[in-house]
Design goal:
Blueprint lengths: L1 H21 L6 E3 L14 H20 L2 H5 L9 E3 L6 E3 L1 H11 L11 E9 L5 E14 L2 E16 L2 E10 L8 H9 L7
Parallel strand pairs: 1-4, 2-7
Antiparallel strand pairs: 2-3, 4-5, 5-6, 6-7
Helix pairs in contact: 1-2, 1-4
Length: 198
């Protein structure tokens, strides 16, 4: 029972990532396609970037509103669409499995209590404006039955532009149960001299 609760919490927390990153901290979408020198200066259509960012906004709004239909509208109907969590059992392949996962996720927090912030975020888009990716590490807060919670989420996603707009084809949200040192601490440790460690 405890393991199931942890899995649900991990998935909910992952949803928080997307909610938190869209609020004033959307990832900067860059051209990351492999290009030759002749095509290296081709710019990404700013309209496509804004449309891709709108997907994050729609997902975040649906999470905050606890709207299952709204969340599902952000996912592709491709049979290989996938939602991943932290553990081996947290792989939800196809829309029905994702819908089932979000049915539980939406029960695990109080509506309108997300307070996420993504200190690190990144993103990119292909030159054709048909595929985008997002990644972030977010500190998040929410509550369940009035009890406040804090956690860190790592989130990554890939979205594709379909006839009806941008949709997630893959979304991966995870939270570590055994937190390691922050990335900056590792850099500082690597830069310190052996004499500093005495």
């Amino acid at each position: 029972m405890q393991k199931k609760k942890l899995k649900i919490v991990a998935i909910v927390l992952a949803g928080v990532f997307i909610f938190g990153c869209q609020a004033a901290q959307q990832p900067e979408v860059k051209n990351t396609a492999n290009t030759n020198a002749a095509g290296a200066n081709k710019a990404i259509d700013p309209k496509a970037v804004e449309e891709a960012k709108a997907l994050l906004v729609a997902h975040d709004k649906a999470l905050n509103d606890q709207s299952l239909d709204g969340v599902m509208a952000t996912f592709s109907t491709d049979p290989k669409v996938v939602l991943l969590g932290s553990g081996a059992g947290e792989r939800f392949l196809g829309t029905e499995a994702i819908k089932s996962a979000y049915t539980e996720i939406l029960k695990d927090y109080d509506k309108g209590t997300f307070e996420p912030g993504c200190a690190w975020k990144e993103g990119g888009m292909d030159e054709a404006g048909k595929m985008a990716w997002f990644a972030a590490t977010c500190d998040a807060k929410d509550s369940k039955n009035g009890a406040k919670r804090e956690y860190v989420l790592n989130v990554s996603a890939t979205a594709v532009k379909q006839a009806d707009g941008w949709k997630f084809i893959m979304l991966h949200m995870s939270n570590a149960t055994n937190a390691g040192p922050p990335p900056d601490a590792k850099k500082a440790e690597a830069k310190s001299s052996p004499e500093d460690k005495k």
